[in-house]
Structures are given as C-alpha cells and as structure tokens.
Amino acid sequence: MGSSHHLLVFLMFLHYAVGFTYNCVKILPDSSSSIVVEVGKNFTATCHLLEGCAYTSDDIEWRLGNLSIAKQSYHRINETAVSVTINISSDMSDWLKCTAPKESLSYKPRSIYGIFLRAGYPPLKPKNLSCIAVQEDKDISPNLSCSWDPGSRNPLIDTTYTVYANVPGTVLTHKADCKQHLARFCVVNLETFPIHMVLKVWVEVKNALGSERSELQSDSTYFVKPNPPLNVQVLTEDKFPTSLMVTWKHPIDRTILKLSYAIRYRKVTSNVWIEVPESFTRGYIESFRLQSLEPYTQYVVQMRCIGESNSSYWSNWSPSVTERTTEAKPASAPDLWRIIQPTSNSRNVTLIWKAPVKANGKIQFYNLSINQNNEKFESHNIADNLSQMYSMELPAGKMASIEITANNSAGDSPKATLSIPRSDKELPGVKDMSWSVRDEKLQVKWTAVLPLPHPLKLSEYLLEWVKIPQSVHQKELPAGWQRVPKNVTVTTLNADLEKFKRYNISVYPIYKYQSGHVWHFQPGRPVTRPAYVQQGPPKEGPTVTVTKSKKNSAELTWEEIPLDSQQGFIIHYTIFYAIGNTKQWKSDMVGPNVHSYVLTDLASETDYVVYVMASTEAGSVKGTDCTFKTMKYGDGEVEVIVVVVCLSFLFLTVFIIMICLRKREVIKKLLWPQVPDPSDSSIAHWSPDFPIKADLPKEDVSVVEVDVFDGKSLCEEDKGVLPLKKDKYLSEEHSSGIGGSSCMSSPRHSVSDSDEGDSGQTTSSTVQYSTVLGSGYKGQTPSHQPPAFARSESTQPLLDCEEHPDHLNESQSRSSYFRRGRELEPGVLAPECDGGSLTFCPVQEEEPSPVAEEPPASALCYMPQKSGYRPQ
Amino acid sequence: MVCLSQRSQAKFRMILAILILIAVELVHPTVSCKNETCSQLLRHSLRLTRLMSKRTTELLETYKTSQDFADLICDMQMDNVPVSTVSGQTISQRILSVYTHLKEFLPHMKTVMEQQKDLNPPTNPVAEGLNRMITHVRHIAVRVNCILEILQPNIPIPEPAESPTGIPHAQNIFQQKAYGCIVLTRLQELLSQAVQEQKSLKKGKMCRKSTKNGS
To answer: Which N-terminal residues, if any, form the signal peptide (chain B) (predicted)?
Structure first.
C-alpha cells in the first residue's frame, strides 16, 4: 500500500515535471529534470505510443519549443515508435515534444509528451595553474591561493571548480569549492603549511557533460612567496665616495626557507634601475657593498629575495632607501661664458658660469682670476650661494683672460679659461644662421666657419639664448648657452624656452690657441637672430590715436606693442575704419614696421570709428576703438574765405571813401547846410536907416570872402593852406563824427576837439555852440543892456580858435572866418573886445525874440580879436 | 577464461586498473618518495627535522612559561609516555627507531593538545603550536619512511598503530600539565636525535651509495 502510494506520488511528480496530462505517448530518453546535451552533437529521442493508444506512428509529430521539426529528421522505427535526430546548437535549450493529434469528435485530449533539453559544453581544462602561499610573520601562511585560466568558452550549464591540495604520503586532502561562475581564483586552507614537503595541488572542473583537471606538484617551497628583506639600510663610507654599503636582515628563518637576495639601485634623477648580478648575492648574506658609483650622488636602493636556487617565488621589492655618496673633487671645470655690452669708451663685461657638470659635491666657492693685457688684474673667491656672475669694465683697447675654478670640500676643479680680445681684434663668426621649430624645441642651423691661420683652431661652437626683454631677477643668469662640437652645424637647443617669448639666439665659434702650455679659448663674432619657440596672437592690440583729422583724410598713429605682449613676430597691421555705427568696415593693411597711416577718401564732417589689428602667424588681436570726426573745411578753405571777405570789405570801404570824396560837396551841403549870408539878408535892404552901414558889411564881407575864403569851403581851404594841420583837420572831421560825421553830424550834436583824443576831455570841453546876441541890432541896441548868450541851432562845429585861443595867432586866416560874423554886429561886440580883453565872456540865454533883445553893454568875448579887423 | 567474451575482457581490465590504482593510493609513501631524489629527500628531511626540533624547543619554552613550570617536573618519569631514546645498531635500525617513536608520539601530542584546549582559551599558543607540530611530525615521519625505503628497500617498514596513549583520563590539572611538559620534552629530545641521525646519513654518503646501486 505504501509503495503504491509512493509510486503514485512519483508519477504525479513526473507528470507535473513534464507538464502534460495525458501519457498516450512517451519519449525516451526521459528525465525528471532537464537533459543536458552537448552543443554540436546529434541528439536522438524516440517517441513511443503506449499500449492502447489509438494513434499510429504516422500521427506522431515532433516539436522543439513551438516549432515543428522537419519530417526528414524523423525515423520510423515501428508502428508505435518514431525517433528524431537533431543537431544541438547553443540556443536549443527548450522543450522537445512529441505529440499525437486529437481524434476528431473524440473526448480524448491531445496526446503530448516532452523533455527539456539543456544545451551546453563540456568543461575546458584549466590552464596555467599557479598557487602562492605568502609569508605570514615568521611562518608560511596555510592559505594557498590558486589561480588558473578557465578558458573563454562559456559552458552554458552549471560547472563547478574545486581546488584540492595534498601532501603525498599523507591521507589528508584539503579542498576548496570555488563558488564563482567561470572561477579563476580560489583559496584552499591547508591548516598547516607543509614545510619541506612535496605538495600536490590540482583544480577540477566538472559539469554534466564531463570533467577536466589541472595538476601541480612540487616541493612546497615552490609555492612560497617570502617577504622582502627586513631592515634594509644603506650606509655611506668616508673616503669611499664611489661606494655604498647595503645591509639587511633575513625575513624568514633559514630552516624554513633559505633565501638568496637581489639588489637594484638607481640614481634619484634616473628611472633606470641597475641590478647587481645575482651571482654576487647568491649566498646567504646580510650585507653587500655597491661599488663604482658616482660621488655625491643620491642613489635609491631596493632589495628582494627568493628561495635558494630559485626554489620559491620572488618576494616583492623592499621599500626604497635613498642615500648619497660622499664628496669627491670636482671632475670637470665650470662652464664659463661672458656677455659684452659696449659703452661709450669701454666695455661692460659680465662673466657668467655654470657649476661643473661633474661637481662631485656641493660647490662652496668659485675662484675667479682676471688678467688684463697679460697682467694679473684681480682675483676673487665668489661663494656659490651668490649669483654665478661677475661684472667688470674692460677698456676697448685691452684684452682680458679669465680663469675660474670650482671648489668643494674635497678639492678644486680643473680650470676653465676664456679670452676677451680687444674690440678691434674680434675673430670672424659664422656666415649664416637660421632657426626652426622641431618638437617644440628650437633647432639652429649655421654655416661652418672657414679655417683660420695657425695657431688659431676652431674648438667648438657656442649657442647663446637671451630672453627679450631680459628678466629682472638678479639671481637668474641673463643668458643661457650650450656648447656643441666643432663638426656640428645643426643642433637643438636643450633649453626650456618659454612659449610666446622672444629670444635672441646667437651662434659663436669658439677658437682656441696655445700659449705656452695653456690653451686659450676665444669666441668669434656672433650671429644673432630673434626667435620664438612658439608664437601666439598678441596679448593686446595697438592703441591707435588720430593725430590729424582733415576734411577727407585722417592721420593715425599707434605705438608698437610691447615685446612681452607681442608673443610672436608681427607680420602686419590691419587698419579697420567705418562711419559711425554703420559697421561697414573698410580695411587697409600695412607692414609690421609702419606705425602711422593716413586714411584717405573720407567723408567730410563725419564721425568715424577706427582700430588697428596686429597679426602674428598665430593669430590677430584688435586694438581699442578710436573715434574721430573729419573737418568741415579743407586746408586753406577758411583762409580763402577770410581773405575774400576782408578784401571785399576793404574794397567796399575804399569805394565808399571814394564816393565820399567825389561827392563831398553834396555831402557837405547835406551835413552843413549853407549858412545864410547876412550880406544877402533882406534885412540889409529892409532897414532904411542904415543904407551906408548896410553896404559896409557887404563891402567888407566881400573883401573877406576874396581874401580868406576865395570861394572855397573851410575844410578845403585848411587842407590847402595848412598842410601841417591836415591831420588835425581830418581829425576834427573824424572827431565830429563821434557826435556825427563831420559831413553828416546832426546839427544839435555838440562838437569836441579831438586833438587830445580823450573822450573825457571831449565831454568836459564840449561847448554849446552859442550865439552871442546883443540887446540891439547894428548899434541900435542900448549900451546899458547886459549881453546875453543864446544857444545856436547851427550845426557848425567849433573851431580850434574857440577852444584854443592860443592857436589863434597861428591861424589868423581861420579867425577871419568868424570875424566876418562878428563884424555883422560891430556895434555890439567890437567895442568890448577891442579893449584887448581875452577873458571869457559869459553868454546869456537867447531871448525868444531877437528883435526885442538888446545887445549887452559890455559883453566879454571869449575869442581874441587882435587881428582880422579892418579899419572901418 | 578462454571463453570470456571481448566485452568481459574489457570489463576485467577496467576493474584491474581500478584495483591497482586503489592499491597505489593506499601505499602513499612508496609513491611520494619517488618524486624526489635521494639528496633532495635527505636535505628536506633534515631541514624539516631541524626546524621541528627548534620549534619544539620554542614551544616547550612557551609551555613552561604559560604553565609556570620548573624544568624538574618536565624531566620526571612517566611510564606511558614514549621514550626519546633512539635505539639500534645500524643506521637503518636507528632511523627505523626514529620513525617508530615519531609515530608513537603522535597520539600523545594530540592528547596534550586536547588537554591544553580544555585548560586554556582557544587562543592558547601552546595548543596552536601543538596542532602545527602534529602535522609537521607526521610529515617528518613520511620523510623518514622514505629514507627507510632507500636504506632498506627490500624490508617492509612496520607501521606502528596509532594506539591510545594509555594515559588515564582522570588526570588532575597538575598531572595534565606535567604530562604535556614531559611529552614535549621527550619529543624535543627525539627530534634532536633524529637530526643527528640524519646528519650521520648525510655524512655517510647514503645517497651516493644508493645512486650507485641504481635506486
């Protein structure tokens, strides 16, 4: 009962495992789990129809997954069995099913049976099995780390890797299961490492399609990796500047593993290790002396060890130990050079030098000895901590010979010598020199110098580089230099030249000649070229200024960009200009040496924007914008206009003057209307009481007219008669113009004498032009009546005689003109003035009616009356 | 036999091969000894014995320090502990004596280790040292066995059974400590003698002779 129950459960499980419910068909081989099949191999399965099954073999159909298998792969075995053979590929992990179709109109379900195929590969044999047990404290670790190459093929199915270890002769085998997929590393614990025993290790890889195994058997020391030597020390030894003593301790007891050692060393400055031959360190030793080293040089030393006869793995290298060998005398001379800067009468020589290449110690000081014209001039000990240069004055007509040695704690170096000839005795230089850039280094090429007559011989060439502008650091050598053999004409400068900086590269031939037993070295004339190791666009553009702006042109100037900012050779400048904000740029290109330019064809009175762009071969940089405005007028235009206007004015003036002169009579009449002639007055004829008297004045007036006026105006007459007074008269005419032109002044204006030319005086001396009226007319006026002044309405200017009586004597002719007027009233004025009085006569206000006025009885005249009167 | 079919013959050969393999596996020392030359074997054996002698000395010092014991106690008589005296007239006999004693000591060492584990915490250095020592003593025994094979290839080597120590379990702590010290002291003496015996072998040109004999 129990067994049948188990069978039923088993069948149910089987049924569940294959996943189908009806067993009219069955596949062989069958399995409750998947059937592992090897990729690339043929697999054959047979489908059997169970007894009582209504199907025939013809009804059987094979399917792999959901795909039907071609009938050609079927093989009918008998009426109830059909086999199928398929070639397994790596992607064939799927159900292989055998089905029989459902009978029509049958209640029976479709018959189907399947097995699960899992495709895979058999395991590959692990390759390169290796195992290591490292040193742990003073013993060997029991953990054996093994690694191998499992191969690159994925087995596709579950595959296990197991490492076994066994000491042959013992029954105990240690194993470790490696859990990783495609394991390549595993650690097996041996509990106690089998020292001095044979150890057998193997790795076994297994899966459903097979197993493989790799084995390793050797003396157990073969698996051991010791620690590096302990306490490695490097010791210096006095008086042995070329050796170092290395000492160490064994990392493990020789009873466990007897070791041999390896030592390697290198200079601190080098990356290349030098290994001491193993034969020198093969013994079980704890010290070794490194020899043939360089004095005063830092060395790095490392050690490692291995079981004797290479019976174990090498240990790692020990930590580096650095030590410096002791000092020895400098083995080479300092490298001496000079820089000569001519001055007005002399030369400023700067001696510069480098420490000896083989200094073999710390240089304490340099001994510098200078001879001038073969006589000892000066000698100095210069400490090394100071800058390695010395400046001196050397007259142009003198030669100098310089010697220098370097000194360290062990002694002096060989001597370096250098000769500086007189200025006029320079030796020839190389003919040509050029440079190029290769791999970010400057390569210099030159033409070799021609041989010189005996005893001068070419010794070598010297290449010098100087940064322009020079550095301000005092400690820094002003120049760098490099020597090359005499047969070389192309070399690369071994200098870390800065990018974008200008250097002057010079090539000097160095000649040598023997004097006595001493060789002298003398440089020839240098050939110098500026160079850049790499050019860049300028740091800044030129700042342009407009120096002259004209109507249609403008002159621009700009400063050269500072050398530090140029960053390359300027190949050209480009001037860009445009009107205002139009941005319609025009450009002109000029050479690198041009720093001013005249823009032409500009529009007048227009705003322009201009800038200059500087270009090197690496790029261009624009300068700052500058704005200017062109002029409205061109050169001379303003002057022409001014001249034309002035000339026009002048001509106009002259023209007016001419007109005035021509039409003076008309003007005169306009300005000074004709004073009525009293002789023509109707009064003379009108008064019946004075017929004779009326004639006298007439006769007298006529005489005066003939003598004095002669039918001409006063002005004209003055000019003709008194040429010396011409100016005065003209002046009077002009001065009268203040109140109104002499010809055109208003009759009401006061007249001033302009002789003094002082307006104040003129104002103060302005005298009302008045008429002195008597109380009577022509002697009829009663004498007792006081004189009176009456303002005249005449526009006649005052004459000199009125204000300057002292001139009267000198101008009698002029006085006579007025005399005529006075004589019109002889009865009124003459008796009083004849008294010889020159005192001022007060003037009475003019009465409204001249007829009613009576002449003053004793009116004083303010004009002299000494002459001009004719006896009546 | 004649009537055996070819299939039966194949099966027989397979079974025979398996039996031979089993037999070979069972006789380990014989197989392992052939992996090394005589001189290598002797050199490694001597080094291992010397190392173990040194280690035993160190372990004994550690033991005495940890148990606060006097030397006197370690030297006292205890009947059930194997003696350290190597006996025999010939070198082969003495080496065989070494081998036998080494095998005899193994169960005692195990007992002492167990007692030490009980007496002291698991990190007890004596117990750890003893554990390693047991392994190494076994390894020495394997080496000595190989030497015996070379010395007397035609004489089977008697394998002493790893019988119980015969020490009663009802020992008090002092007795256990004294027992452990006595075992280590005698083992140290045995290993010292073993070193000497092997040195004698090295001096005695054992390997040269065996090489000449064509071994």
So the answer is: 1-29
Chain B residues touching residue A222 (CB < 8 angstroms):
none
Q: What tens digit of pLDDT does each residue of A550-578 get?
A: 888 899 999 889 888 899 999 999 999 99
| Mutation for testing the A interface, residue in B24, B31, B32, B137 having most A CBs under 10 Å | B32
pLDDT score of B122 more than 80? no
Give dist(CA A443, CA A446) in Å, integer.
10
Residues in chain B: 215
Specify if B25 maps to a domain: no
**Is the CB of residue A776 less than 8 Å from the CB of residue A756?**
no
In a domain, residue B20? The reply is no
DSSP class of residue A5 equals H
Nearest-Cα distance to chain B for A29, in Å, is 24
Written as one letter, the residue type at A129 is: L
SS3 A655: helix
Averaged pLDDT of chain A: 78
> pLDDT, tens digit, for every residue of B57-80?
999 998 888 877 677 778 888 878
Is residue A686 very low, low, confident or very high in pLDDT (cuts 50, 70, 90)?
Answer: low
Structure tokens belonging to residue A240: 């042995």
Q: Which of A168, A171, A196 sits opposite B47 (nearest CB)?
A: A196
pLDDT digits (tens, 9 = 90+) for A817-861: 444 444 444 343 333 434 333 434 444 434 333 433 444 433 333
pTM: 0.58
> How far A201 CA lies from chain B's nearest CA (Å)?
14
d(CA A228, nearest CA chain B) in Å: 21
What distance in Å separates residue A217's CA from the closest CA in chain B? 9
Give me the domain span that covers residue B147: 35-204
Report if residue B6 sits inside a domain: no
Q: Is A546 helix (H, G, I), strand (E, B) or coil?
A: strand
Whether the link from the prior residue into A455 is cis, omega within 30° of 0, is: yes
**Confidence at residue A346, expressed as pLDDT on a 0 to 100 scale:** 87
Is the CB of B145 less than 8 angstroms away from the CB of A170?
no
Out of A191, A195, A253, whose CB is closest to B48?
A195
Q: What is the CATH number of the domain that holds B133?
A: 1.20.1250.10
What radius of gyration do chain B's Cα atoms show? 21
d(CA B192, CA B208) in angstroms, rounded, equals 24
Q: What is the pLDDT of residues B76-120, one digit of tens each?
A: 888 788 888 899 888 889 999 999 999 999 999 999 998 888 887
Q: Which of A164, A196, A259 to mutate to test the interface with B (most CBs of B within 10 A)?
A: A196
With left for phi above 0 and alpha for psi between -120 and 50, is residue A360 left, alpha or beta? left
Do you find a cis peptide bond into A29, omega within 30 degrees of 0? yes
- How far CA A65 is from CA of A16, A68, A92, A96, in Å, comes to 18, 8, 9, 6
A171 chain-B contacts, CB cut-off 8 A? 28
Angstroms from B83 CA to nearest CA on chain A? 25
| C-alpha–C-alpha distance, residues A686 and A34, integer Å | 180
Contacts of A167 in chain B (CB under 8 A): 32, 139, 142
Strand, helix or coil for residue B45: helix
Pairwise CB contact (< 8 Å): A168 & B31: yes
Rounded CA-CA distance A476/A93 in Å is: 79
Instruction: Select the more confidently predicted residue: A556 or A740.
Output: A556
pLDDT for A367-402, tens place per residue? 999 988 877 778 888 887 767 889 888 888 888 999
Candidates B44, B135, B138; nearest CB to A196: B44
* Cβ-based contacts of A168 with chain B (< 8 Å): 28, 31-32, 35
Query: Per the structure block, which two tokens stand in for A279?
Result: 């034969």
Tell me if B10 is assigned to some domain. Answer: no
**Before A451, cis peptide (omega within 30)?**
no
Best interface-test mutation with A: which of B24, B36, B45, B48 has the largest number of A CBs within 10 A?
B48
Average pLDDT over residues B197-212: 74
